[in-house]
Design a protein that fits this description.
heterodimer; A: alpha+beta; Cytochrome Bc1 Complex, Chain D, domain 2; two-stranded antiparallel sheet; B: mainly alpha; Cytochrome C Oxidase, Chain A; 17 helices; globular
C-alpha cells in the first residue's frame, strides 16, 4: 500500500518487499551453490580440484593447460614424501597434523595461504614447487633444515626479514612439509599468476 | 541534568551500558593503533622486537582489536538507541550488565594469551585454548563459544525490548540482521583438514560480516543517527534503509564469490563473484546520495556538528574505501595479480575506517551530547578545534596510509606477479624495490599522524561540550518546507 502523495516505486512498503525478496532469493542461490561447491572441493573428489591427501605419494608438477589458458597442477608418477608411501588415511593424518601446526604457530599472520593471510612473508600456495629450493633432490632436506631453524637458515634477499624460530618438533616439520606438498596440488585457477616451478623429473614416466 | 557537566547517573540504564561499551571500544582502538605501529615498524626495522613480539603477534592483535572494538561500538550504539526506538526500558538489565563484564573479561584473557603464550603445539588443544591461527577469527574455540553465548544474551535484550515496546522499520531490519550476524559466526567455529573447505566457510564469516551484515547494521545506526542529528523524516529514512538492504544483500551475498576465485573452488565463481561484487559499490553510492540529500534538505542545520561531520565522513568513507577501493581489484582479471598483495591491505585499511570507524565515532559524539546534558554541540563550541583537528588528522593519516599501501600494491602486482612470476625470489624482489620501501616509510609516517589524531579524538571525547551552556535546539523544519519533503 503506497503512502498518500508517494509514487508506488518510492514507497516504503514497495522497498520493504524488495528487501525481503531480494535477500531471500540471493541467500537461496548461495545455499544451492554452496551444496554444489562443497561436493567439488571435497578432498579427492572426481572434479579433481582438491586432491586426495595421498597425493603426497606422487610427484606434483605444474604445467600450462592450453584449454584453460593457465597453469594447472599435474599429478605425476609415484614419488613418496621422505621415501615413505602412505595410505590415504595415514596421509590424511599427516597433512592434518601439518595444518594444525600451521594454525597453532599462527603462520597466516605473516604468510598467505592460497593468497589469504598477511603480507610480511611469501605466499605458501606453491611453496613445495618454489624454484628457490634448487632442485628436486635437495628439496626435502633443505625444507627440513630450514624449518628446524629458520633464523639460522634465513635467506632474506636483502629485506632483513627473518622467520622467527617456531620450535617445531621433527614430527611437526614433516607434517608441515606434507601439508605444503598437498597444498601445491590444489587447482587454484592459475593463481599465483605466472608461477614457474622448480625443475623436476618426468611427470608422465617413471619416478626414477 | 547540568549543561556541560557529566550526567552519567541521569542516563538510562541501557545508555550507561553503552558508555561502558564505548569506553572499552576506545581502549581497544588505541591498542589497535599501537600494535599497527609496531607491525608497520617491523617492515622498516625487521629486527625490532624479533623473537619477542614478532610480526605475526602484532598483526594478530592489530586486526583482532579492530574487529572487537568495532563490535563493541556497534553493541554500544544498539543499546543507546534501543530504548528510544522501542519506547520501553531494557527488558533484562541484569543480564545485559553481566554480559558486558563476561565479554570484556573474555576479551582481556584472549589478548593476554595472544601476547604471553602466543602459540602452541600443533594439536587441537592449541586451537581450543590459545589461538586458532585463522586470520581475523584467531580467538580460541572457548572464546568463540563464549562470544556466541554473549551475543545470544545481547540479542535477547535487544529483540525482547522491541517486543515489549514498539517495532519500527529500523528495529525490524536491525533484529533480523543481528540474527544473521550471530549465526554466521558459527560458520567459523569448526576445524577441517581441507584448506579450500576451511577458507570457503571462513569467508562466510569474514565477507558476510563486513560486506553484508555489518553494512546493514551500520545502515540502521546511520538511519537513527540521521533522524537524531538532522531531524530527518522517519518515512524517508526508513525507505532508504530498505533500498540499501535490497541493494546490499542483492549484491553482497553473491559478491562473496570474489573470495572464491583462487582457493580451489569451481570456476563458475569467477563469473558470479566478479559480476555481483562489481555491483557492491551501488548501495554505497545510494548511501552517499541519501546522507547528502538529507543533510542538504536540512541545510546542514544540525544540533551535533561533530556527529554530523562523522556521519558524512561515513557515507564518503564507505563509498571510497569499501566501494571504490574494493571495485578496483574485484574483477578476477585484475585480482589474479593483486590478490594477496599490499593492494588488499590498502583496501582493508580504508574500508574498515571509512565504513565502520566513522559511524562508531559519530555515535559516540551523540552519546557525549546526552552525557553533557543535551548541550548544543556546534562547530563553534568551546574547544571545537579539537574535534575538527582530530577528524582531519585521522582522515589525512588514513588516506595517506592507504595510498602508500596502494602504491606498494601496484608495485608488488607488477614486479612480483606480472614480471617476476610469483616465486619467492620475485616476492623479495618486489619487497626491496625502492618504491615499495618508500611506500612503507610513508605508511609509517601517516600512521603516526593518525595516532596523533586518535589521541586528540580521545581527549575531545573527554572534553567535548564541557564548557557548553547552550541547550540543544529543536530541529523541526518550518511547516511549509516539511510538507514538501
Amino acid at each position: 500500500m503506497a503512502e498518500p502523495g508517494t509514487e508506488w516505486w518510492a514507497s516504503e512498503s514497495f522497498w520493504r518487499k524488495c528487501a525481503i525478496f531480494v535477500t531471500a532469493f540471493m541467500a537461496l542461490v548461495l545455499v544451492l551453490l554452496t551444496f554444489h561447491t562443497l561436493t567439488v572441493i571435497a578432498a579427492g573428489s572426481e572434479a579433481g580440484r582438491v586432491p586426495a591427501y595421498s597425493v603426497i605419494n606422487h610427484r606434483i608438477g605444474y604445467e600450462f593447460d592450453d584449454e584453460r589458458n593457465h597453469m594447472v597442477p599435474v599429478i605425476g608418477p609415484v614419488a613418496p614424501l621422505f621415501g615413505e608411501a602412505l595410505d590415504e588415511e595415514a596421509a590424511r593424518a599427516l597433512v592434518d597434523h601439518g595444518k594444525l601446526t600451521v594454525q597453532a604457530r599462527n603462520c597466516m599472520n605473516c604468510h598467505t595461504l592460497l593468497g589469504n593471510g598477511a603480507y610480511y612473508a611469501p605466499d605458501l600456495t606453491k611453496a613445495w614447487l618454489d624454484p628457490g629450493w634448487g632442485n628436486e633432490q635437495a628439496r626435502e632436506l633443505l625444507m627440513t633444515m630450514f624449518l628446524k631453524d629458520p633464523p639460522a637458515n634465513a635467506r632474506t634477499f636483502g629485506t632483513g626479514r627473518r622467520m622467527p624460530n617456531p620450535h617445531l618438533t621433527d614430527d611437526e616439520v614433516r607434517a608441515v612439509i606434507a601439508y605444503l606438498k598437498w597444498m601445491s596440488a590444489i587447482d587454484t585457477n592459475g593463481f599465483p599468476s605466472g608461477f614457474t616451478p622448480l625443475p623436476q623429473g618426468d611427470l608422465r614416466g617413471d619416478a626414477s | 541534568m547540568t549543561l556541560g557537566g557529566i550526567n552519567y547517573h541521569e542516563l538510562s540504564f541501557a545508555q550507561r551500558l553503552s558508555v561502558k561499551y564505548f569506553t572499552v571500544a576506545m581502549v581497544l582502538f588505541l591498542a589497535q593503533m599501537l600494535f599497527g605501529l609496531l607491525a608497520g615498524a617491523q617492515f622498516l626495522w625487521p629486527d625490532f622486537l624479533f623473537g619477542v613480539l614478532d610480526f605475526n603477534v602484532n598483526r594478530m592483535v592489530h586486526i583482532n582489536a579492530m574487529v572487537v572494538w568495532m563490535l563493541y561500538g556497534f553493541i554500544g550504539s544498539i543499546f543507546w538507541l534501543v530504548e528510544d526506538e522501542s519506547g520501553v526500558p531494557l527488558v533484562g538489565p541484569r543480564i545485559a550488565e553481566a554480559t558486558f563484564w563476561v565479554l570484556t573479561l573474555a576479551v582481556t584473557v584472549v589478548v593476554v594469551v595472544y601476547l604471553v603464550v602466543q602459540s602452541g603445539p600443533g594439536n587441537q588443544w592449541t586451537l581450543w585454548l590459545i589461538n586458532e591461527g585463522r586470520e581475523y577469527i584467531e580467538a580460541p574455540r572457548w572464546a568463540d563459544i563464549g562470544i556466541v553465548l554473549c551475543m545470544v544474551a545481547i540479542f535477547y535484550n535487544v529483540a525482547g525490548t522491541f517486543v515489549a515496546g514498539r517495532w519500527s522499520g529500523i528495529s525490524g531490519v536491525l533484529v533480523l540482521d543481528l540474527i544473521a550476524l550471530a549465526g554466521l559466526y558459527l560458520a567459523g567455529m569448526f576445524y577441517t583438514t581441507n584448506l579450500p573447505m576451511d577458507q570457503y566457510w571462513w569467508w562466510w564469516v569474514i565477507h558476510l560480516w563486513v560486506e553484508a551484515t555489518w553494512e546493514v547494521l551500520v545502515g540502521c545506526i546511520m538511519a537513527w543517527g540521521l533522524i537524531k542529528t538532522l531531524g530527518a523524516r522517519r518515512r524517508i529514512v526508513t525507505t532508504w534503509l530498505y533500498i540499501e538492504v535490497a541493494l546490499m544483500f542483492g549484491s553482497g551475498i553473491l559478491g562473496l564469490g570474489h573470495h572464491y576465485f583462487w582457493i580451489g573452488t569451481p570456476e563458475y565463481w569467477l563469473g558470479i563473484g566478479g559480476f555481483f561484487s562489481a555491483l557492491e559499490p551501488i548501495p554505497l553510492v545510494a548511501m552517499v546520495v541519501h546522507a547528502v540529500y538529507d543533510a542538504g534538505r536540512h541545510s546542514f542545520r544540525s544540533n551535533n556538528h561533530p556527529a554530523l561531520a562523522w556521519l558524512i565522513a561515513h557515507a564518503f568513507g564507505n563509498f571510497l574505501g569499501a566501494g571504490v577501493w574494493g571495485f578496483m581489484q574485484t574483477l578476477p582479471q585484475i585480482n589474479m595479480y593483486t590478490h594477496g598483495t599490499q593492494w588488499s591491505s590498502s583496501h582493508g585499511h580504508l574500508a574498515f575506517f571509512g565504513a565502520y570507524t566513522t559511524i562508531v565515532v559519530a555515535f559516540i559524539y551523540l552519546a557525549i551530547q546526552r552525557l553533557r546534558g543535551d548541550v548544543w554541540m556546534s562547530a563553534g563550541m568551546d574547544g571545537a578545534w579539537r574535534w575538527k583537528w582530530a577528524l582531519a588528522l585521522l582522515h589525512i593519516g588514513m588516506v595517506g596510509m592507504s595510498i602508500a599501501l596502494l602504491i606498494a600494491g601496484y608495485e608488488q602486482s607488477f614486479v612480483e606477479r606480472a614480471v617476476g612470476g610469483s616465486t619467492w625470489q620475485a616476492y623479495f624482489a618486489g619487497q626491496t624495490q625502492p618504491w615499495f620501501v618508500q611506500a612503507m616509510w610513508w605508511r609509517m609516517a601517516f600512521g603516526v599522524l593518525m595516532t596523533a589524531g586518535l589521541v586528540l579524538l580521545l581527549v575531545d571525547f573527554l572534553r567535548a561540550g564541557a564548557q557548553e551552556t547552550r541547550p540543544i535546539k529543536s530541529l523541526a523544519l518550518p511547516q511549509a518546507a516539511a510538507a514538501g519533503g
